[in-house]
């Protein structure tokens, strides 16, 4: 969905870059939805194949504890099978929470439904101000839909609030409307359909004011509860927090019951992120099967801007190597990139601008150079802005990146042939269109 939005934005921008087309360009939700489902299907298939290759039995059933060291697995046809084991890992994740008001379960959808929704949702009210709420609002608006976000108190609770407000302003620029300090009290269906027509009655979170609005779809993103309620944890005495039902674990992911471990979203006070769940699972497997225990160092990092994931990925590697402000200051910038030009990096109260410079080594790789080292063999090729203070004979790559060449071209970051100097060219062009400085 993000990609669909980005492509739409690129289409809009493309005219400014000289692209001329006269056909009306419109988005087809059904095509996108099918593509998403196909992609998920292919991921599932490859995971299952990987499990088979490792001789791991995959059982597609609902699991629940019936006693210590024993679970019941019920498949889609209602067939029950019992399994026993010495140790258990709970990774049941979370499911979206409902409001508990009239009409919510009948007429509202959640982010879990959105990715497989067979029809375009139309004018959408997103209820909530979490990352899930703003993410969904963002890509729906990016597809050209009318989007309103109803916020009870603050945006992105628990996030750095200065950054949260910046995110709010940036999504408003997509045309998203905010209804601040309101909570829905009733959802009525006015018309059936795909989508139908819904009336939402909301009341002020601070006073007595009531408002009403008409929407095609109402998407609830008010939080997620851990899937720990109906899996028999009470039968074996696993401690579960009342709300949101997550499991407290030790620093080796062990619950209060020694044979039961938990990883992922279901765990208390852990970041709800896929890589966190994956890494915790890997480390737990290593520990349970006698592998070594890694100790990760983590430093806070915020990025607001396009390609934030790409930028963060690079910084994540540096942070794992003990990245400091001094190191950032000492690093030459890659240009033109979002990381250098537009990304504001905030560490506590420090405002940093990441500077990285690179050289393409082959069609598929480039290296990042530290500030203070100079460009060696390629310095003879002069570029505006590639200042002499950076030219010495002993440059060593800090880091080599291997990325598809097409990615560089697509981003307008770099192109050229193996051995070329630093510079940016359009695909197929021999002329440097951006000097690196
Ligand atoms: C809209 C949205 C966007 C997100 N975007 C990002 C993002 O951009 N980046 C990111 O890192 N994270 C993102 N996340 C968070 C990420 O999806 C979760 O952190 C991650 O999926 C947690 O993994 P998990 O294995 O703990 O749980 P899940 O991925 O939820 O997996 C739990 C699995 O357990 C199954 N299950 C539940 N109960 C049982 C049972 N009793 N028996 C058998 N199976 C059961 C479920 O069906 C499910 O397959 C997003 C989440 C949402 C909702």
Automatic annotation (TrEMBL):
<dbReference type="GO" id="GO:0034599">
    <property type="term" value="P:cellular response to oxidative stress"/>
</dbReference>
<dbReference type="InterPro" id="IPR016156">
    <property type="entry name" value="FAD/NAD-linked_Rdtase_dimer_sf"/>
</dbReference>
<keyword id="KW-0285">Flavoprotein</keyword>
<keyword id="KW-0274">FAD</keyword>
<feature type="compositionally biased region" description="Basic residues">
    <location>
        <begin position="424"/>
        <end position="437"/>
    </location>
</feature>
<dbReference type="InterPro" id="IPR023753">
    <property type="entry name" value="FAD/NAD-binding_dom"/>
</dbReference>
<dbReference type="InterPro" id="IPR036188">
    <property type="entry name" value="FAD/NAD-bd_sf"/>
</dbReference>
<keyword id="KW-0676">Redox-active center</keyword>
<dbReference type="GO" id="GO:0005829">
    <property type="term" value="C:cytosol"/>
</dbReference>
<dbReference type="GO" id="GO:0006749">
    <property type="term" value="P:glutathione metabolic process"/>
</dbReference>
<dbReference type="GO" id="GO:0050660">
    <property type="term" value="F:flavin adenine dinucleotide binding"/>
</dbReference>
<feature type="domain" description="FAD/NAD(P)-binding">
    <location>
        <begin position="25"/>
        <end position="281"/>
    </location>
</feature>
<keyword id="KW-1015">Disulfide bond</keyword>
<comment type="similarity">
    <text>Belongs to the class-I pyridine nucleotide-disulfide oxidoreductase family.</text>
</comment>
<dbReference type="InterPro" id="IPR004099">
    <property type="entry name" value="Pyr_nucl-diS_OxRdtase_dimer"/>
</dbReference>
<protein>
    <submittedName>
        <fullName>Thioredoxin reductase 3 isoform X1</fullName>
    </submittedName>
</protein>
<feature type="region of interest" description="Disordered">
    <location>
        <begin position="412"/>
        <end position="437"/>
    </location>
</feature>
<feature type="domain" description="Pyridine nucleotide-disulphide oxidoreductase dimerisation">
    <location>
        <begin position="294"/>
        <end position="339"/>
    </location>
</feature>
<dbReference type="Pfam" id="PF02852">
    <property type="entry name" value="Pyr_redox_dim"/>
</dbReference>
<dbReference type="GO" id="GO:0005739">
    <property type="term" value="C:mitochondrion"/>
</dbReference>
<dbReference type="GO" id="GO:0004362">
    <property type="term" value="F:glutathione-disulfide reductase (NADPH) activity"/>
</dbReference>
<dbReference type="Pfam" id="PF07992">
    <property type="entry name" value="Pyr_redox_2"/>
</dbReference>
<dbReference type="InterPro" id="IPR046952">
    <property type="entry name" value="GSHR/TRXR-like"/>
</dbReference>
<dbReference type="GO" id="GO:0045454">
    <property type="term" value="P:cell redox homeostasis"/>
</dbReference>
<keyword id="KW-0560">Oxidoreductase</keyword>
């Amino acid at each position: 969905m993000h990609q669909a939005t980005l492509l739409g934005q690129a289409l809009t921008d493309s005219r400014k870059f000289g692209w001329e087309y006269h056909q009306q360009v419109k988005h087809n939700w059904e095509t996108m939805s099918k593509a998403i489902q196909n992609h998920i299907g292919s991921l599932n298939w490859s995971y299952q194949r990987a499990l088979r290759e490792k001789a791991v039995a995959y059982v597609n059933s609902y699991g629940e504890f019936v006693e210590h060291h024993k679970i019941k697995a019920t498949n889609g046809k209602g067939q029950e099978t019992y399994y026993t084991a010495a140790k258990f890992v709970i990774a049941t994740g979370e499911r979206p929470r409902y409001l508990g008001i009239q009409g919510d379960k009948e007429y509202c959808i959640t982010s879990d439904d959105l990715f497989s929704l067979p029809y375009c949702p139309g004018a959408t009210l997103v209820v909530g101000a979490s990352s899930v709420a703003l993410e969904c609002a963002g890509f729906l608006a990016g597809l050209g839909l009318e989007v309103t976000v109803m916020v009870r108190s603050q945006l992105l609770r628990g996030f750095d609030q200065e950054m949260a407000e910046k995110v709010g302003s940036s999504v408003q620029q997509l045309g998203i409307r905010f209804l601040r300090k309101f909570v829905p009290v009733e959802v009525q269906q006015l018309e059936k359909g795909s989508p139908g027509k819904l009336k939402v009655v909301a009341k002020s979170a601070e006073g007595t004011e009531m408002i009403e609005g008409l929407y095609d779809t109402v998407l609830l993103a008010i939080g997620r509860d851990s899937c720990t309620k109906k899996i028999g944890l009470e039968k074996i005495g696993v401690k579960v927090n009342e709300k949101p039902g997550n499991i407290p674990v030790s620093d080796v992911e062990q619950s209060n019951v020694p044979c039961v471990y938990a990883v992922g979203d279901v765990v208390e006070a852990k970041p709800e992120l896929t890589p966190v769940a994956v890494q915790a699972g890997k480390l737990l497997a290593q520990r349970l099967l006698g592998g070594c225990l890694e100790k990760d160092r983590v430093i806070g990092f915020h990025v607001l801007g396009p390609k934030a994931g790409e930028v963060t990925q690079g910084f994540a590697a540096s942070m794992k190597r003990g990245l400091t402000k001094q190191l950032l200051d000492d690093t030459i910038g890659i240009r033109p990139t979002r990381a250098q030009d537009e990304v504001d990096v905030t560490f506590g109260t420090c405002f940093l601008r990441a500077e990285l410079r690179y050289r393409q080594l082959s069609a598929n790789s480039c290296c990042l150079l530290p500030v203070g080292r100079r460009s060696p063999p390629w310095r003879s090729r002069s570029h505006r802005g590639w200042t002499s203070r950076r030219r010495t004979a002993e440059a060593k790559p800090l880091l080599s990146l291997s990325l598809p060449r097409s990615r560089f071209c697509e981003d307008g970051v770099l192109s050229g042939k193996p051995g070329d100097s630093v510079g940016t060219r359009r695909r197929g062009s021999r002329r440097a269109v951006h000097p690196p400085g």
